[in-house]
Automatic annotation (TrEMBL):
Any Pfam family hit: GDPD
Top-rank taxon, per record: Bacteria
GP-PDE domain location: 54-292
InterPro entries: GP_PDE_dom, PLC-like_Pdiesterase_TIM-brl
PROSITE patterns given in the database record: GP_PDE
Taxonomic path: Bacteria, Bacillati, Bacillota, Bacilli, Bacillales
Coiled-coil regions, chain positions: none
The protein's name: GP-PDE domain-containing protein
Length: 294
């Protein structure tokens, strides 16, 4: 019957006008690295726009396009205008600081050796090597003074200290090197660590420098974080909730988020940014900027 068709059209129109049907959120354009994986997740308990004030921290440099912790990766991150370049520190046998994450060089370099067993001159003989696409790219292991010489006061260095053989051995050489390069200023430097002892030593030498206390995955303790003597708390994304972000920020503590699961990092970036975190360690600078614009 014609009247039934007209009634059906009218009912559908009313539902649309009243907002019964909601448009699907637009999925951000993915990168080739992540294929067609769905990359959008809304923060259900706090829908809204991401803050434009989120600090973009290039994790190990621009490591999605070049070997991590190399000068080339750092230069790409700087050109992409990341707010900070993240640098993991290791110490050589002769107490020189190099940019490297793991305890041995075989994660990206050509030899399975521990930095602490070799002198700076020996470490410089090892190359890093990583494949992107069909090409293998090589670069030398980078020392911290080489990074400072390359960028000077044109970059913000977000460095991670750690205990060496259970002791605070790298903090004083780090502070001395920063002083020698006129970089001992919060404009140029932030220092993070999983070690409270290391951060305490840094604060004794340079109380003006911003410090970040990191928590390992599933070891985050909100009460401990609220009582910690640090300007920033660094949390693995799976431990981040809206309540955690709100509680820390209400006490004037910044929240920076890192990611350990490559498969879900981009999805998790969107979620935590929508919670209003202050900074993210990203493996894809361009993608993070895209999320912030949505």
């Amino acid at each position: 019957m014609p009247w039934r068709s007209a009634l059906l059209v009218l009912v559908i129109a009313i539902f649309i006008i009243s907002g019964f049907f909601e448009a699907e959120p637009q999925t951000p354009q993915t990168t080739a690295k992540y294929g067609t994986e769905a990359l959008y997740v809304s923060a259900a308990d706090k829908p809204g726009d991401a803050s434009a004030d989120v600090e973009i921290i290039a994790h190990c440099g621009a490591n999605h396009v070049f070997d991590e912790h190399t000068l080339t990766a750092d230069k790409i991150a700087s050109k992409a205008e990341a707010d900070s370049i993240e640098i993991d520190l290791r110490m050589t046998k002769d107490h020189e600081l190099i940019a490297f994450h793991d305890t041995t060089l075989d994660c990206t370099a050509t030899e399975a050796v521990a930095p602490k067993e070799f002198r700076r001159s020996e470490i410089k003989q090892f190359d890093t090597a990583t494949m992107f696409g069909q090409e293998t790219y090589k670069d030398s292991v980078t020392t911290l003074d080489e990074i400072f010489a390359a960028f000077g006061q044109e970059a913000h260095y977000y460095m991670e200290t750690r205990l060496v053989d259970g002791d605070t051995k790298m903090e004083e050489p780090l502070i001395n090197l920063l002083q020698e390069n006129n970089l001992l200023d919060p404009k140029y430097v932030s220092i993070q660590s999983f070690s409270k002892e290391s951060l305490q030593k840094i604060q004794e030498f340079a109380p003006e420098i911003r410090t970040t206390l990191l928590y390992e995955t599933d070891k985050f303790d909100l009460e401990d974080a609220l009582e910690a003597d640090a300007d920033v708390i660094g949390i693995e994304s799976r431990n981040v909730t809206q309540d955690v972000v709100d509680a820390l920020q209400q006490e004037g503590i910044e929240v920076h988020v890192f990611f350990t699961e490559e498969r879900t990092e981009l999805i998790e970036q969107q979620r935590v940014i929508m919670y209003g975190v202050d900074g993210v360690f990203t493996d894809d600078i361009d993608f993070t900027r895209q999320v912030m614009k949505q």
